Each structure stands twice: as structure tokens, then as C-alpha cells.
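Feature request, filed as a ticket because there's no other form

It would be nice if the structure record came with a short human-readable summary line next to the C-alpha cells. Right now we just get the raw output. Example of a typical job, pasted below so the devs can see what we mean:
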Amino acid sequence: MLTKLKKQVQQMLSSQARVAHAAGFTPNVISAIGFTLSFLSAAAYALGLVQPWLILLAVILLLASGFCDTLDGIIARNYQQATAFGGFLDSLLDRYADAIVYSGVIIGGLSNIYWGLAALIGSMLVSYSRARAEAAGIKMESVGLAERAERMLILAAASVVAFFWLPALNWGIILLAVLSNLTVLQRGLHVYKSLKKKEENKN
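Raw output as currently delivered:
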């Protein structure tokens, strides 16, 4: 959904990528830093009920992690450092990061456990459905309402509101649970239609 905006942001971050590259940061190192920031964000969420200001810290760390997730790809493309393993590692760390952050929210008691698990599972399946579809030769970019960027922004926005009204984070998680699983459904339908069209073209 935010694919076009993401491409514009990537162009805007070219100067930051140039500085990071000049400083010797490789895409894999940036990916590892982003993962570490996600882990710290999850820890802040886990303690957010005890110290509400940590929820704002969690948001800052979450968005910084998202920044790293964008930056590593720009460095890889702009400086011919893209590798098959790098893409695999980036995707793998992204999945761990998502799961850890949702777990932090759940452990911290900031959301209903069942909705939290539904959001976590939906998040994993959004990525899995894309991987399986692309393995079958079907493009999935921009298919669905809640790709990773959208999910991250929804969680960040709900967290900021939660600093003033705590239940907002639970409502944000509920929204994420609904939208992520709806995205899986959208992608499933897209794959079905695409494969059916391929079969018809063969015949």
C-alpha cells in the first residue's frame, strides 16, 4: 500500500546511505543494528506498563529499526553489495524483529494476549504468503493493506496515543490483527486468481 511512498523515501535517504557506506557500514551490519534496535524496543514495551515513558522510547527504537531496514537495502543496491545471502538474512531478521516486538507488547500486558497472538501470527503469514507466492513466480509487492511498513506505522501511532491513553495500544493491536490477517486473505485470493489465469493461458 505504501510501496510508492517507500520508493520516494529510499531516494531521499541516498545521502544517509552514502555517509553510512563511507563509514564502512555494510548492509548486513545495518540489518544487525536494526534487529538489535527491535530487541531493545521490545524490552521497552515489556516494561511500559510499569514505566509509561518507556512506551515512547519503544516507538523511537521501533522507528529507528525501520530506518535501518530501509537503509540496508539502499546501500546494497547503490553500492553493488546486494547478495542472495544478504537478502535472506535481512528477511529473516525482519521476521524475528516483528515477532520480538509483538511479544514485548504482549509480555508487557499492553494488549489482550489473544489479539496480540493474532497480530503476531498475521504478521508472520503476510511475509510467508509473499515468499511462497514469489517462489511460484507471482509478484506480491503492494498487494494487501498491511505490509511491514504499514504495520510498523500503525503500531507506532497507537503507541504514541497510548502514552496519553493506555488502551489505545490494545486497540492498535486489534487493528493490526484484523488488517494483517485480511492482507493474508487478499494475497491468497491474488495467488489463486493469478494461478488460475496462468492455467487458462496454457489451455
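Something like this underneath would help us a lot:
The domain at 3-202 is CATH 1.20.120.1760 (Four Helix Bundle (Hemerythrin (Met), subunit A)).
The chain has one domain: 3-202.
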